[in-house]
Amino acid sequence: MRFSAPADHYDRFMGRYSTGLAAALADAAGVRSGQRALDVGCGPGALTSELANRLGASRVAAIDPAPLFVAACRERNPGTDVREGVAEQLPWDGGEFDATLCCLVVAFMDDPEQGVREMKRVTQPGGTVTACMWDIATGGMTMLSTFWAAVKRINPDAPAEHALPGTAEGELARLFDRVDLDDVVGGALTVSADYTGFDDFWDPFMLGVGPAGAYLQTLSSGDQAEVREACRALLPDGAFSLDARAWFARGQA
User: Fold this and answer.
1) Buried b / exposed e across 47-70, counting CB within 10 Å, b at 16+?
2) What is the pLDDT of residues 35-73, one digit of tens each?
3) Which end of the chain has less Cβ packing within 10 Å, N or C?
4) Model's pTM, two decimal places?
C-alpha cells in the first residue's frame, strides 16, 4: 500500500506518535555523531528530522514512493538528500551508510524481504539495519486496536491489519535473520499520544490515511456513524492519552 494522502493529513493521523517513535528507533539503532544514515520510507519526515538533528542534515538521506511525502520531507529537512523511490530498489551504492532505518514501513513494502536486503546492501559492513512496525497483532497500538475493535462490532469479517508483515512480536527479527543480518536483536518501543477529546481521535480517521482510513472510506455514511459511536463507547470522556507499542529489530550488515 502506498500513501497518497497530503502530509498534513498524515500528521493529524499518525504524526502525534511519529516524533517520539523516531527518537526511540534512533536510540535502538545506536545512531551517533559522525555517522551517515538513511531513512527508508521517510513519509513526511519525522525520522529524517530526528536523524538530521543528531547527525547534521548533510549526513542524512531519505526516500519514499509518495511524491507528496517526498516534497514535505524536503521542505521540512533542508540540506538532506531526499529522493522518490521504493525500498526494493534503493538508488545508492553499496555500503554508503553507517545506519539504515525504516519506521512503520516494512508492512507496506511490496516485497519486505527484498526491501530489507536492499537496506543491508547500502549499509557498510558492521553498520546497523533497524526497523519497527506497530504491534497490531496483539493490540499494542491502542489507537488502531480501538478502531478495528469498533469495526468488528459492525462487521466481524472486516480485514483489519493483523496480516501485515512485521506487526507481530518477533516477525521483524525473523525477517532480518532470513536476509542474513548478523547479531539480530528484537524488542519493543513504547510511545504515547495526547488527545483533546473524542473528535480529536476520530476526525483524522475520516481523512483516509492508511489501511484504517481507506477501509472507513469504503463504508456507507450510516456504517461510518456506527463505527464512530462504537469507538466513542471504547474511549473515555474528555481529554485522554493512548499508548502505542511497536516491535523493532536491529541487525548488523
Assistant:
1) bbbbbbebbeeebbbbbbbbebbb
2) 999 999 999 999 999 999 999 999 999 999 999 999 999
3) N
4) 0.94
- Of residues 37, 64, 63, the one with CA closest to residue 50: 37
- For the domain with range 7-141+162-194+243-252, which CATH number is right: 3.30.470.20, 3.40.50.150, 3.40.50.2000, 3.30.70.1560? 3.40.50.150
Instruction: Decide if 16 contacts 193 (C-beta within 8 A).
Output: yes
C-alpha cell at 54: 543528531
What distance in Å separates the CA atoms of residue 178 and residue 165, rounded to the nearest whole number?
14
What are the boundaries of each domain within the chain?
A: 7-141+162-194+243-252
* Amino acid sitting at position 174: R
**pLDDT in the model for residue 164:** 86
The C-alpha cell at 227 is: 463505527
**What is the band of 253 on the pLDDT scale with cuts at 50, 70, 90?**
very high
DSSP string computed for the chain: ----S-HHHHIIIIIHHHHHHHHHHHHHHT--TT--EEEES-TTSHHHHHHHHHH-GGGEEEEES-HHHHHHHHHHSTTSEEEE--GGG-SS-TT-EEEEEEES-GGG-SSHHHHHHHHHHTEEEEEEEEEEEE-TTTT-BHHHHHHHHHHHHH-TT---STTSTT-STTHHHHHHHHTT-EEEEEEEEEEEEEESSHHHHHGGGGGT-HHHHHHHHTS-HHHHHHHHHHHHHHS-SSSEEEEEEEEEEEEE-
Q: How many Å apart are CA 176 and CA 247, to the nearest integer? A: 13
